[in-house]
């Protein structure tokens, strides 16, 4: 095992992405934020558009927890999966309260069980924060690492329990930080989903799946259903009516109201589509010129640009502006 760890560490020294900002900090909040942003989002997107502006706006857990949720959602706009932003905000508020009880600044706990109790922190995120921020000798289990483990042991349909047990056996307890970062980099740079580069992989000697790596794991075919909505753009005095969403989906964002049946006097102006992980949304958009103020909130397009809105509502606004 020592040899194997050395090969991984040597590979990481030469090929690893050491300059990623969340790898050059020891600040637990920055590391935690990066872990949450990187769920479902590519490194380049987080790096180029979200990580630094978010930290500039909310440099500490204290600043994050004290900010209005609307401001947090605005900084998250376009990243999707807005529950992540809501949970970050809630976690910061919980940690502020705990800090006040102990007379200290808010900080993340080091213990994995305590981390998992916080909103939006699952097993993998708790392990990632524990190992990257606090150097705990534990493995992590993001998608790239799952794929490597399946290929190393030629597993087609392993359970999470099996994978965690293998991961615990393999982790380098003397240098878990570099080991886990290296495994993530091997997964995204070498053991890629399509066309893995086995010839330059530091794990090739022990890999049982290298003859036919793309067999592992078995890919599940997913059919994505399409949902349809009628969106009613009610215009009054050159302003558009909007609502703040309160359901589970698109939590707290502003959006254009949907309707079961479009008003007879409304005009169909086109359609926009947006694909989410679990479904495709098709919105038929109608325009209605109101003679009096029917809804509670109206905004000009310029004002809407300052609100936190979803990608699909951005597309609807663009459709509206293009038809004007
Ligand atoms: S040898 Fe090939 S299949 Fe095995 S871990 Fe390395 S890149 Fe992946």
Please provide the ordered H/E string of secondary-structure elements: HHHHHHHHHHHEEEEEEEEHH
Number of spatially distinct domains:
2
Helix and strand content put the structural class at alpha+beta
CATH topology of the largest domain: Endonuclease III, domain 1
Are any ligands bound, and if so which? iron/sulfur cluster
CATH class of the largest domain: Mainly Alpha
Question: Span between N and C termini?
Answer: 66 Å
Percent range for β-strand residues: 5-15%
Fraction of helical residues: 40-55%
Q: Supply the CATH superfamily name of the largest domain.
A: Hypothetical protein, domain 2
Oligomer: single chain
The second-level CATH architecture of the largest domain is Orthogonal Bundle
Radius of gyration: 23 Å
* Strand segment tally: 8
- How does the overall form come out from the CA principal axes? globular
The description of the largest β-sheet is: 6 strands, mixed
